[in-house]
Amino acid sequence: MSEKKHVFRCILFLLSAVLLSLSFKARADDFSSVIHIATPEWAGQTHADGTGFFFEILKKIYEPEGVKVSWEFANWNRSLNLVKNAHADAMPSVWREDADAAGLRVPALPLYIEYTVAVFKRERFPDWKGQNSLRGRSVVWFRGYDYHLRNPLKGIVMHRMEIPHDGNPWRLLAADRVDAFIDSRIDVDRYVDTHMVDTLVYRVAPLWGQKAYLAFSDKPSSLELMDLFDRGMARLLASGELEKLHEKWQVAGFYASAWEQPGEIVLERP
């Protein structure tokens, strides 16, 4: 009888070992040593040679963990769909509301704080009073950004125009075809610097700041990739390396406490 018990225990032990091995293998199969990014090609942020503000942050987070960063370029909507359909692992600079609407996951910490600004000729708004000044005015932005649906602008009726991402809203402003255009500060600042925009003629006015995330596909491997992201981002914040990357790529508006502010809307530094 004792011999049968011994045999039975051995069988149970072997079965448990096999199941445990299969569990580890399943986890290993779910987790990849590559994180594949789908993104628009943004000047200063995501370059074809793998440089840029976003790419450098991701490499500093993932490469020390043995995870290689790969990428492909597509417009905003296609990038979102690639991640949604699990043809890519993640997409940078996505607001939580957009991630939720697309069924994507976001980590606890944002990738960066995206400040949204309005750009206009000073003579058009001599008495600028913030976003309410846009009421009833003609405003342009890039297709897919849907600023009129965002809480800070929701309910403000504007005559809006959307242009493709290869369009040039500055030309529309210069020709007085629109009163203002709305875009992220990171892109506007870069254009102002590289095109020597006359700031006596044009004004860049802040509207709001919002946490922008690395949004992940809704699949099991994303859980570990998100965990690696949060741990790596916390490390970059604590070491001061994230602030240095902001300085290197001339991304204005950094202050570490913004990553800890509650909610999604972030105020400028007090």
Set down the secondary structure blueprint:
Blueprint: H1 2-30, E1 34-39, H2 53-62, E2 68-73, H3 76-84, E3 90-95, H4 96-102, E4 112-121, E5 138-142, E6 159-163, H5 169-174, E7 180-184, H6 185-194, E8 202-216, H7 221-239, H8 241-248, E9 265-266
Parallel strand pairs: 1-2, 5-6, 5-7
Antiparallel strand pairs: 3-8, 4-7, 4-8, 8-9
Helix pairs in contact: 2-7
Instruction: Note the quaternary state here.
Output: single chain
Examine the coordinates and then state which fold CATH places here, giving the name of the CATH topology of the largest domain. Answer: D-Maltodextrin-Binding Protein, domain 2
**Molecular shape:** globular
**DSSP summary, beta strand count:** 9
Secondary structural class: alpha/beta
A few lines on this structure:
36% of the residues lie in helices and 22% in strands. It is α/β, with parallel strands linked by helices. The strands form two sheets. Strands 3, 4, 5, 6, 7, 8 and 9 form a seven-stranded mixed sheet that branches. It has a two-stranded parallel sheet with strand order 1-2.
Provide tags for this entry.
alpha/beta; Solute-binding_3/MltF_N; about 270 residues; globular; D-Maltodextrin-Binding Protein, domain 2; 9 strands; about 20% strand; disordered N terminus
Protein model, in words:
Residues 49-249 form the Solute-binding protein family 3/N-terminal domain. It comes from Desulfobotulus alkaliphilus. With 270 residues, the chain is α/β, with parallel strands linked by helices. The chain folds into 3 domains: 1-30; 33-112 and 211-266, D-Maltodextrin-Binding Protein, domain 2 (3-Layer(aba) Sandwich), CATH 3.40.190.10; 114-210, Periplasmic binding protein-like II (D-Maltodextrin-Binding Protein, domain 2, 3-Layer(aba) Sandwich). It contains 8 helices and 9 strands. The strands form 2 sheets. Strands 3, 4, 5, 6, 7, 8 and 9 form a 7-stranded mixed sheet that branches. The longest helix has 29 residues, at 2-30.
